[in-house]
Automatic annotation (TrEMBL):
Function: This enzyme is involved in nucleotide metabolism: it produces dUMP, the immediate precursor of thymidine nucleotides and it decreases the intracellular concentration of dUTP so that uracil cannot be incorporated into DNA.
Keywords: Hydrolase, Magnesium, Metal-binding, Nucleotide metabolism
Protein name: Deoxyuridine 5'-triphosphate nucleotidohydrolase
Binding positions for substrate per the UniProt entry: 66-68, 79, 83-85
Involved pathway(s): Pyrimidine metabolism; dUMP biosynthesis; dUMP from dCTP (dUTP route): step 2/2
Enzyme Commission identifier(s): 3.6.1.23
Name of the top EC class for this enzyme: hydrolase
Reactions that this protein is recorded to catalyse: dUTP + H2O = dUMP + diphosphate + H(+)
Organism: Alkalibacter saccharofermentans DSM 14828
Protein family (similarity comment): Belongs to the dUTPase family.
Length: 147
């Protein structure tokens, strides 16, 4: 793909986001903060990353939680998956929530989430009176049972 332009504002001397292993889908992003940020249970904080990007048209970035932080401390992204639009020129920020039982302090330079670069297609609609039939029909929300 065409290269993404990236601007880094380095408060905490963190390196360029990078893939931690050869087969990693996501590049870890760092908390760009001078001091620790405490997140009390059920609190939400917006953590800066110091990263600004310009994506080629047709690409998006998804930012997702790190499983280790979620499992060990209940630190996850309150918006599930964050969408970074190709025309967004602001700083990538990470809305974290603490779903754990204890306060957690995000340290300067800590890896807080991961970004995945993805292609997307433009959806188009055609308005119709009736949709085509399928075996599933309107069944959903567990209608096929548990086992
Ligand atoms: O976790 C996130 C999610 C979004 N963004 C930035 C990039 C994105 O392009 C922009 C808008 O995000 P979104 O469309 O999800 O939010 P919105 O509430 O619909 O805001 P807007 O009205 O600005 O689109 O905010 C982040 O930095 N982190
Ligand atoms: Mg939006």
């Amino acid at each position: 793909m065409e290269k993404c332009k990236i601007k880094i504002v380095n408060k905490s001397a963190q390196p360029l986001p990078g893939y931690m292993t050869e087969g990693s889908a996501g590049m870890d992003l760092y908390a760009d903060t001078n001091e620790g940020i405490e997140i009390k249970p059920m609190d939400i904080v917006l953590v800066p990353t110091g990263i600004f990007i310009s994506l080629p048209v047709g690409y998006e970035v998804q930012i997702r939680a790190r499983s280790g932080l979620s499992l060990k401390y209940g630190i996850t992204m309150v918006n599930g998956i964050g969408t970074i639009d190709s025309d967004y020129r602001g700083e990538i920020k990470v809305p974290l929530i603490n779903l754990g039982k204890s306060a957690y302090t995000v340290k300067p330079g800590e890896r807080i989430c991961q970004m995945i670069v993805k292609k997307y297609i433009i959806g188009e609609f055609e308005v119709v009176e009736e949709l085509d039939d399928t075996l599933r029909g309107e069944g959903g929300f567990g209608h096929s049972g548990k086992l």
